Amino acid sequence: MKKRIVVLTGAGMSVESGLSTFRDADGLWENYPVQQVASHDGWEADPTLVTNFYNMLRRQLVTKKPNDGHKFVAELEKDFHVDVVTQNVDNLHEEAGSTNVLHLHGELMKVCSSYNVEDTRYWRTLTADDLEIAPGTKAGDGSLLRPYIVFFGEAVPNIEPAITLTQQADIFVIIGTSLNVYPAAGLIYYVKPNVPIYLIDPKPVTTTGHNVTHIQKGASDGMRELIKILHGEE
Ligand code: APR
């Protein structure tokens, strides 16, 4: 049976595709007030501003392509059972060919009912030719159509399946996340003892995990090195 790898990714995964992180200098939260554009209260206070913000992010996303890091993660599926647990709302893991991708913080290319985010009847997947939501557009249940994004102040429904996957991992890989945001950052506590953890990030990242090997490189070079390690070449 193939070994199980869980790959937890954050904004750093998509930097080499041209997307910015949140907390680095010039990160997204430096240029846009997070409380306004990515919190539940912000949505309630000004849905037009929030709708336009995510329209802008979608226009940006459709010009981006997966980088080598995404592709190497997808290629792991040749030798391992791979589950990607991502905090990213982009779809670059899927575009690179990863088949099991669990999004913790929602998906930029989806919109949903603001009355019940998880009501799949009102989900709509947008495409490059149809990515703008006019402010005021309603979902089928009469509520405002909103981005399928987990805003600050909201529950993270996919954390439960993510915990289960993490508990089953034989190898745990973390790529491009500052591990600042819970509950995602707490997944590391569910890694079984003796399971190796590889952390790929060009900067130091504080973790309390055991067995952590820090590959201090960007996502693509870091994944190149990890693949050699996993194949016993280093
Ligand atoms: N390759 C890999 N990692 C990189 C690269 C790169 N080329 N460039 C930067 N990084 C690292 C940074 O060093 C940092 O540790 O990516 C990390 C990005 O951290 P954050 O900006 O905090 O992003 P993330 O951890 O994904 O944020 C978590 O916070 O704002 C919310 O919902 C949002 O999902 C997001 C969550």
Structure description:
The radius of gyration is 18 Å and the shape is globular. α5 packs parallel to α8. The chain has 234 residues and is α/β, with parallel strands linked by helices. β2, α6 and β3 form a beta-alpha-beta unit. The chain has two domains: 137 residues, Rossmann fold (3-Layer(aba) Sandwich); 84 residues, SIR2/SIRT2 'Small Domain'. 38% of the residues are buried. The strands form two sheets. The protein has a six-stranded parallel β-sheet with strand order 3-2-1-7-8-9, with helices on both faces. It has a three-stranded antiparallel β-sheet with strand order 5-4-6, covered by helices on one side. 27% of the residues lie in helices and 18% in strands. Adenosine-5-diphosphoribose (APR) binds next to loops.
